[in-house]
Amino acid sequence: MTRGKQKIEAQKRNAEKNQKQKGSQLEARAVGLKISCPICKALLANQNQLGDHYASKHPKEKPPAESS
C-alpha cells in the first residue's frame, strides 16, 4: 500500500490516463463512410457496399454508376 507522496502521484497519473480521449468514434466513422445512398441517405464505405445495399434495400432500383 502506498502512502503520502506516492499515493498522490499515482492518483494524478491515473486521472491523466483516464481523462485523455483518443478521438470520437463518430469522427472516425465519418471519415470512413464516403458514399451515400441517394434514396435513403445511408452512408457506405465503398461502391461494393452500395451495390449490396441496393440489392437488399432497393431491389427494384438500379444502383448509380460508379463515379471516380
TrEMBL record:
<dbReference type="InterPro" id="IPR026939">
    <property type="entry name" value="ZNF706/At2g23090_sf"/>
</dbReference>
<dbReference type="GO" id="GO:0005737">
    <property type="term" value="C:cytoplasm"/>
</dbReference>
<keyword id="KW-0539">Nucleus</keyword>
<dbReference type="Pfam" id="PF04419">
    <property type="entry name" value="SERF-like_N"/>
</dbReference>
<dbReference type="InterPro" id="IPR013087">
    <property type="entry name" value="Znf_C2H2_type"/>
</dbReference>
<protein>
    <submittedName>
        <fullName>Zinc finger protein</fullName>
    </submittedName>
</protein>
<dbReference type="InterPro" id="IPR007513">
    <property type="entry name" value="SERF-like_N"/>
</dbReference>
<keyword id="KW-0963">Cytoplasm</keyword>
<dbReference type="GO" id="GO:0008270">
    <property type="term" value="F:zinc ion binding"/>
</dbReference>
<feature type="compositionally biased region" description="Basic and acidic residues">
    <location>
        <begin position="1"/>
        <end position="19"/>
    </location>
</feature>
<dbReference type="Pfam" id="PF12874">
    <property type="entry name" value="zf-met"/>
</dbReference>
<keyword id="KW-0479">Metal-binding</keyword>
<dbReference type="GO" id="GO:0005634">
    <property type="term" value="C:nucleus"/>
</dbReference>
<keyword id="KW-0863">Zinc-finger</keyword>
<feature type="domain" description="C2H2-type">
    <location>
        <begin position="35"/>
        <end position="63"/>
    </location>
</feature>
<keyword id="KW-0862">Zinc</keyword>
<dbReference type="InterPro" id="IPR045230">
    <property type="entry name" value="MBS1/2-like"/>
</dbReference>
<feature type="region of interest" description="Disordered">
    <location>
        <begin position="1"/>
        <end position="26"/>
    </location>
</feature>
